[in-house]
């Protein structure tokens, strides 16, 4: 059943996750029940573990690393890295907007201090340097795993690094990737990584002027 309905189960879990986040926002911002809202976040995190377990079980049954596992891994990596910071920013933004709408103060002095610092070009550049470094580490780790699945030794992997002519052919058979799916993901991610890395470091190389 898991093999046959894996995508339906995954989509169902994601729908429930969104509902839990909406309930979290409703209980926290509109009803002011912080303790009860925490339960919905615990449920959301639990669903992430369930997704990871689902991907592991299906991999054990099929013995193949397919698109389904890759999608879940991407979700988990995002949730454990950039997702945490994005959620904090969203939480702060929601409290500011809803507090202004209800004419009550939902932001603390620390929140205002963080908001003010985020306008500082030095802080902006530092944030992008950190995100670029995290992206670099993740890129190297995941790409190494992909290449390990498609090669038989470290020397073979190094040979692909020394001779990049396989990129021009556009065929996964000539690449260090084990199949066409991972080849497509790896190449698309490579382009995205280069653009993101250059864009992130541009804030350090060409910093903007402080806002008055």
Describe the structure concisely for a colleague:
The protein is mainly alpha-helical and 212 residues long. The protein has helices spanning 6-30, 34-62, 67-80, 82-102, 109-117, 121-150, 154-162, 166-169, 180-205.
Describe the 3D structure.
By secondary structure, the chain is mostly helical. The protein has a domain at 1-69. 79% of the residues lie in helices and 0% in strands. It has 9 helices and no strands. Helix 2 packs antiparallel against helix 3 and helix 6 packs antiparallel against helix 9 (180-205). The N and C termini lie far apart (60 Å). The relative contact order is 0.08. The mean pLDDT is 85.
End-to-end separation in angstroms reads 60 Å
Number of strands: 0
Give the helix tally. Answer: 9
Which stretches are low in confidence, meaning pLDDT under 50 for 5 or more residues running? Answer: none
Oligomer: single chain
Global Rg: 22 Å
Helix and strand succession?
A: HHHHHHHHH
Kindly report the average pLDDT value. 85
Q: Structural class, please?
A: mainly alpha
Report the portion of residues in β strands.
under 5%
Percentage of residues in helical conformation? over 70%
Major sheet: none
* Spatial shape: flat
What's the layout of helices and strands?
Blueprint: H1 6-30, H2 34-62, H3 67-80, H4 82-102, H5 109-117, H6 121-150, H7 154-162, H8 166-169, H9 180-205
Provide the descriptors you would attach to this structure in a database record.
single chain, 212 residues
